Amino acid sequence: MLVADDAGLELTTYGNKACRTPHLDALARRSTVFSSAFTSVSSCSPSRAALLTGLPSHQNGMYGLHQGVHHFSSFDGARSLPGILAAHGLRTGIVGKKHVGPEGVFPFEFAHTEETESVLQVGRNITRMRQLVRRFLAAPDPRPFFLYVGFHDPHRCGHTHPQYGIFCERFGDGTPGMGVIPDWTPEQYRPEDVAVPFFIQDTPAARLDLAAQYRTISRLDQGVGVVMTELARAGHLNDTLVIYTSDNGVPFARGRTNLYDPGVVEPLLVSSPRHPASWGTTSHALASLLDLTPTVMAWLGVPYPHYSIWKHGAPVTLTGRSLVPFLAQRDKTGGSRQEKRAARRVARRGGGEAVFASHQTHEATMHYPMRSVRTVAFKLIQNMYYRMPFPVDQDLYLAPAFQDILNRTHDGRPLPWLTSLDQYYHRPRWQLYDLRRDPHEQRNVAGKKRYAAALATLRARLRTWQDTTQDPWRCGPGAVLEDVGAFRQHPACLPLYNGL
């Protein structure tokens, strides 16, 4: 499992012709490419914990970042892939960024992470990562294995390691004082060469930011190539399921920490040697990173355990699904005219397949709980703390692109952005977007009469998912959830009469 850090769709495979990613493109040619994959939370530690447990952040307990002053952790009673698979005789390992805890919930047998050495070395130095992957694969151990490789690229580092550049794009590039990463041949990008996505303003500052991001993506891409080379060297290229994805969206406004599509859309490449006919194909099915735990377990033939996180709590239910069946079939774009018409009717009412998201915090000071449900046709976002301005994290604040937004707004200069800073900060309680008419999520139609039925259906589906996943926030912000004592058998949302 190869997990990038704050990576979006900056791959040739996903249509970005400006950012060169030959190694990821090679992996895509022996994978099923999921074109509509989404994280369940737009924050690093919460997403990684959700990916490894199969449970959304509000259910596994990782409400925000794990490191430093933030100090969030998953519940002690949660179970994750490394622990479950080890109990079934697999050897487990992690190389690179871990960013989750406690150790008892995420117990990797072989571990070289930021907990044991510099995250720059184990997450960005792809030569060091090669050595560690080789050591794991070369061990004289006949057990099947689960190896998690956590790249720290292309996360920003202007906040933590400014000497290496905005995205650590100079770390290991061979220039004076930057060190050398032998396995990395840095790509060069000029600001005028980048492809500016629709949600980022097209200004010199933003283009400079993107050029630095692209250069860091070249290290990520070559790192993926290094891992695949080591897999082949160890003789496991043709007997190992390989998954590539990222934890959350790109670190720009409307990206990471947001539930707009740029904050939650993810690359997802699934390469199965058992399904070579699926290599190079594209699945348009909606996929969630919550699907990865059931996918890995289904591929390995390991059953999911029956357990409760709490002593007297309800048993855990996975809401994700295995993606293995999608590897055994090509997308069906046909169907009768009647079937297509019926599917469109269901979609217009808010039906059809859906993916869900749940966001609580990020940094400790950024509590802003949100929930969302996304179908092919609609995205519904609930902003529980809608009377508060949307928070901004530390490294985004220092980013050239965001400083450009701040300065242009403050100075009254033109800002070629799809929204305004005021609109970005202040959001309504419910945001409903008709994705077929408005794929960039700019026109909130929650108050439109013609969308009332779809809104009601999506709200009901979101609430059902919250109930199923035991969401502690499901009554907020206008009521209190009572679910213990006299309310244990019949939980209730009791009104606060607070005007919400």
From TrEMBL:
CDD domains: SGSH
Organism the protein comes from: Portunus trituberculatus
Cofactors, names only: Ca(2+)
Annotated GO MF terms: N-sulfoglucosamine sulfohydrolase activity
UniProtKB keywords: Glycoprotein, Hydrolase, Signal
Protein name (database record): N-sulfoglucosamine sulfohydrolase
One Pfam family recorded for the sequence: Sulfatase
Gene3D superfamilies: Alkaline Phosphatase, subunit A
Coiled-coil ranges from the UniProt annotation: none
Domain Sulfatase N-terminal: 3-302
Family designation: Belongs to the sulfatase family.
Glycoprotein among keywords: yes
GO biological process terms held by the UniProt record: glycosaminoglycan catabolic process; heparan sulfate proteoglycan catabolic process
